Amino acid sequence: MKKFHSFGWYAAQISPYLPKKAFQPTPSRLFLGLVYLLTVLSGILVISLFDLHVIWNTLISVVLGFSFAALGFLGHEILHGTVVRTPWLRDFLGAVAFWPLCTGPKLWRKWHNATHHVHTQNEEKDPDAWPSMSKLAQSRLLRWIYKIPFTIRAFFAFSSLTIMFTFHSIRMLGYFRKQFQPKNRAIVFLQFMLPWISWIGLLFIVGFANWFFSFLLPLLIANFIVMSYISTNHRLNPLVPVNDPLANSLSVTVPKWVDFLHFNFSYHTEHHLFPSMSSKYYPLVKEHIKRMWPDRYHEMPMLKALWALWKTPRLYYQQNELVEPRQGNVYGSLGNGLNPSSIEYRKIEPGTQEGRISSETDR
């Protein structure tokens, strides 16, 4: 079995080579956030107050959607404590940044910081991990879903990126609700509901047509942008017994101007090594990772990663492969035989337990 190391092990090897300022909060990140916030407010006002042609409203919606997503990336950084460290200010700024995506700071820190980062790609403990064949055997819903032909399922999976972040946030509210202290449950619920109340209130103020262009369409666009990153973060990587970011995470590459506007969200392996470090310094972390462990580090262009997601299923087989149970096709994962430039598969052995599940799925 391949030897895994924890994120702390890697961080300890790289830390001596990083400047001390890399471990300090970087409040200057808020300036770009302010630009996005003013852009959102201005765009909503323009759509609501002026009777613009549908083309202009659509263009403004695209800008709003881009800004919604970018604010979400900033909120992610803020709630990791990399922008400000004062707890009440961190949560306030994080709530403002996540307002367009309707996610509260306490829920996000529980779901993302305390659970996903600690148990990344652990099938049982990571709420963002995709299931394995054992889960397929236990779930009628999954077996029904996997009866749908692969190409049709891939199309709907990519279409669902326009709603998936919102849907998953709602699911996480139910998933973690009982894990909060009773005194905090009301706060978590209030933080979740206030954004929705404000956006639904906007509907009654400006009418459906203006609301569609000022919130609903931008939300769909923002979901797609955010989920395009999140989908590539881990879904081509294996499930792992040790939280090893070089095994379970993928960094994608995008143009430098996109990295600037998206707060270096593409540097995902680096983020899992140093979640409490400002993403401003992730390019430096990347240099050291590629120098020290070039054969373990995974990166590829964003579009190539999305294409690989389209061409492979999202069900794990023996932890380190991906399987299409209806056809019995098994694909590698990153570090385990997957070549994104030439995606190939092998067949499940008919006599195995997985082969029997495959036969049941196909009925």
Structure description:
This protein is mainly alpha-helical and 363 residues long. It has one domain. The protein is 58% helix and 5% strand. It is built from 17 helices and 6 strands. It has helices at 7-14, 29-49, 54-79, 87-98, 105-116, 133-138, 140-145, 150-159, 164-176, 182-206, 208-234, 245-248, 256-261, 268-273, 282-292, 302-311, 353-361; strands at residues 251-253, 299-301, 316-317, 321-324, 329-332, 345-347. Strands 3-4-5-6 form a 4-stranded antiparallel β-sheet, with no helix packed on it. Strands 1-2 form a two-stranded parallel sheet. Helix 2 (29-49) runs antiparallel to helix 3, helix 2 (29-49) runs antiparallel to helix 11 (208-234) and helix 10 packs across helix 11. The longest helix is centred in the middle third of the chain and has 27 residues, at 208-234. It is globular, with a radius of gyration of 21 Å.
Structural class: mainly alpha
Query: How many domains make up the 3D coordinates?
Result: 1
Regions with little confidence, pLDDT below 50 for 5+ residues: none
Instruction: List the total number of helices.
Output: 17
Give the biggest sheet.
4 strands, antiparallel
The gross shape turns out to be globular
Question: How are the strands of the largest sheet arranged?
Answer: 3-4-5-6
H/E element sequence: HHHHHHHHHHHHEHHHEHEEEEH
- Give the strand tally: 6
Q: How far apart are the first and last residues' alpha carbons, in Å? A: 35 Å
Question: How many whole angstroms does the radius of gyration measure?
Answer: 21 Å
**What helical percentage do the residues reach?**
55-70%
Mean pLDDT: 93
Strand content: 5-15%
Transmembrane segments: 30-50, 56-76, 144-165, 186-205, 211-230
GO molecular function, one term: oxidoreductase activity, acting on paired donors, with incorporation or reduction of molecular oxygen
Keywords: Membrane, Oxidoreductase, Transmembrane, Transmembrane helix
Pfam families: FA_desaturase
